[in-house]
Amino acid sequence: MTPDQYCQNKTSQSGSSFYYSFMFLSPERRRAITALYAFCREVDDVVDECSDENVARTTLAWWRGQVAAIYSGTPQHPVAQALLPVVRQFNLPQEHLLEIIDGMEMDLTQHQYADFKSLQLYCYRVASVVGLLAAEIFGYSDRKTLKYAHDLGIAFQLTNIIRDVGEDARRGRIYLPQDEMAQFGVHTSDILDAHETEAFQKLMQFQVERAQRYYAQALAELPAVDRKSQRTGLMMAAIYRATLEEVVYSGCHVLRERISLTPLRKLWLAFKTWLKN
Question: How far is Cα 72 from Cα 68, in angstroms, rounded to an integer?
């Protein structure tokens, strides 16, 4: 199996919404974004699948070494090998790949966030940085596109947080800001015990409105000159916004269920967005 094939398998098996938008890229850019996404999946899986914190830290440290090896030309892991030509061709900054690992490592020790400002750092590392790297791969001519990519990444991560409240709680993690939970009268035990209250519903509506503002802000920031080159991101946005709408339509019952779109609907949304842009 070649490094590219390994990345393709890793991406397709994840069931991610991103996979459906990658299908519309040129082969060269599709290989590049698939390698980047496989890297994100590898380091994320270290945290989610490893029950021993010390082992997880050691593995993430090894991945930092692989990032260094990518830029020195001596990577060992198939994903790192696939990224080697990508970082050279698209001039991807090494510090961005390291920031993604930093974000994943936050999950090992930080299981709650005091306020949205502290949550923003996490969202930036695990999502906005990925958006910035993706923007380089897709191509742009106006640097304002990077602001769009940054804010769209925040919107994606906020959508993940809203959708996965119950799933994250079962891992002992709560990403909803503590000060906002207190503001609405929601206790940590309510979330960990999947106790849905009227206060919880109001808190979730507050979270949804923030995510919607980030989507609107990001899309307004994308310069017209870069809409075509960045339409893969617009496909992702269509799929993620539809997921958020489904969460709202379902009544935000996210403590006990996880809302997702069917593969056919994701593909249709991606295709429809591709035609429009």
Answer: 6
Rounded to a whole number of angstroms, the distance between the first and last alpha carbons of the chain is: 35
Contact yes or no for 203/181 (Cβ under 8 A) = yes
**DSSP code of 126?**
I
Dihedral-angle region of residue 218 (phi above 0 means left; psi in -120 to 50 means alpha; beta otherwise):
alpha
pLDDT greater at residue 16 or residue 241 = 241
- CB 133, CB 223: distance < 8 Å: no
Contacts 24+ apart (CB under 8 A), 22-26: 22/232, 23/267, 23/270, 24/231, 24/232, 24/235, 24/270, 24/271, 24/274, 25/138, 25/232
Residue 172 — left, alpha, or beta (φ > 0 → left; ψ -120 to 50 → alpha)?
left
Would you state the pLDDT for residue 14?
64
So what's the pLDDT on residue 25? 85
- Provide the whole-model pTM: 0.93
**What token pair was written down for 175?**
């990403």
Percent of the residues in the chain that have a pLDDT greater than 90, as a whole number: 78
Over the Cα atoms of the chain, what is R_g?
18
Q: Does residue 19 register a pLDDT over 80?
A: no
Q: CA-CA distances (angstroms) from residue 265 to 106, 194, 259, 268?
A: 33, 29, 13, 5
Residue type, 3: P
Q: Is the pLDDT of residue 277 over 90?
A: no
Residue 176 — very low, low, confident or very high, per pLDDT cuts 50/70/90? very high
Angle, alpha carbons 24-29-32 (nearest 5°): 125
